[in-house]
Amino acid sequence: MPYLAGMVWGWCVLSTGVPVCAQNTPQKVPVITLGRIAAPSLKNGKLTPTTTTRQEILKNGLLLADVNNCRVTEYKFTLLAPNKGFYGPIYVTGGELTDSLKNKIKSQSGPNVKIYIEDIKMNYRGNLMDANPVVLRYDE
Fold it and tell me: What global pTM score does this model have?
């Protein structure tokens, strides 16, 4: 499913990966964030990373949904530190930052370090769904 935020009119049933939706029924599509760090915004159709600190990322090491009955089951992690190289992609089962990922974040200082958490799969009310990517940036 493509990136969606806010309210969607209709209910959806996922079978064979194709949603079948009814009209005129409001349903909130879950949005995934790292802890309570704000989700990235869309500007001109492109994701703009959420600016935060390295300490906040390490403190909020769990991918969360903004609705109940939803949990992250897997994701892909990539870190890009200018002039220091590219780390990843690392595929992770579950919704937590692993200790090795936390150690990598601790060792990468800024400026303009970007973390991409993509290909997020979530279990929502018994259905496996794709979730929005999480893109973070820190400078220290």
Answer: 0.77
Q: Which are the contacts of 107, defined by CB distance < 8 A and separation ≥ 6?
A: none
Contact 112, 121 (CB under 8 A): no
Distances (CA, A) of 27 to 15, 21, 67, 68, 123: 18, 11, 11, 13, 16
* Residue 78: strand pairing partners: 116
Buried b (16+ CB within 10 A) or exposed e, 6-24: eeeeeebebeeeeeeeeee
pLDDT one-digit tens code per residue, 15-70: 444 455 555 555 567 889 999 899 888 888 888 899 999 999 999 999 998 888 89
Return the domain boundaries, the chain: 31-138
